[in-house]
Amino acid sequence: MGEGKLEGGLYIVATPIGNLRDITFRAADTLRDVDLIACEDTRMTGRLLAALDVDATLIAYHEHNAERSRPRLIMRMQRGESIALVSDAGTPLISDPGYKLVRACQDADILVTVLPGPSAVMAGLVLSGLPTDRFQFCGFPPSRRSARRRMLSGVAAIGATLVFFESARRLPACLADMADILGPREASVARELTKLHEEVRRGALDELARGYEDGPPKGEVVIIVAPPGEVAVDFDVDEWLRGALEDMSVRDAATAVAVEAGVSRRDAYRRALAIASEKPDDADS
Ligand code: SAM
What we know:
Layout: E1 9-13, H1 25-33, E2 36-39, H2 42-52, E3 58-60, H3 66-78, E4 82-86, H4 99-107, E5 112-115, H5 120-127, E6 135-139, H6 145-155, E7 161-167, H7 171-182, E8 186-191, E9 199-204, H8 205-211, E10 220-225, H9 235-245, H10 250-261, H11 265-278
Parallel strand pairs: 1-4, 1-5, 2-3, 2-4, 6-7
Antiparallel strand pairs: 7-10, 8-9, 8-10
Helix pairs in contact: 6-7, 7-8, 9-10, 9-11, 10-11
Bound molecules: S-adenosylmethionine.
S-adenosylmethionine binds at residues 17-18, 87, 89-91, 94-96, 119-121, 165-167, 190-195, 220-222.
């Protein structure tokens, strides 16, 4: 049961990303007690509320009506109404609408508070098996290939684990570009988190890309990529390259080892060049 009438203001409420039972007690109470729930999609939130047995007034607040809707929401909160902001799933504002509404409330001295809970960012990161001490959330890479590759180049040097949202449909192409631009890093694809078919695939970026060559998976995915240098071409690959360089040119050694070790040709070539330059007589001939 909720605790009754809430103070006027904005309540940012995180909701489950797949498993309904991940709703928090506080979130359920607040959704029951607010005067109004602003949500991206009234049908989607309606289903959550039906499962919680909450009867509430819903209003749509999404990227297409936010400019028009925001002043009205602000006015209602100034009159003392309590409004919950929810997104379709997870934490509002995280690749979801709400940031400008929070600012507008703060500028108008309206109470803003948060009811933290599920987010695919944290769920994907903690299951990735990659370092969690520093991470950069990169949102959705652009869908156009050239823009996506530019975006990836822009984050390539960041010394932190990178977390990306992506649609399952674009996952294969995105992983292939990541392998090309971010290099031979370890990565994880976390799919259908908290749902029946939850899965985490781990491997080098190009291995992961090859794993989806036959087609994209179903469901929702988060891509998590190791920091640069954290898991670079590993010792074994360097050893293989050294062996191959004894009787092959740099180009041939790189191609042979890239195929064998499942790393990109470009990275194997770079490593092979570096190794060959350690001993000038072994350089490409
Ligand atoms: N605000 C939400 C949050 O905090 O989780 C994210 C909203 S964003 C529009 C939706 C993206 O989150 C999906 O495209 C996917 O990348 C990721 N996502 C959401 N739910 C997921 C799940 N159950 N498993 C994996 N990824 C998920």
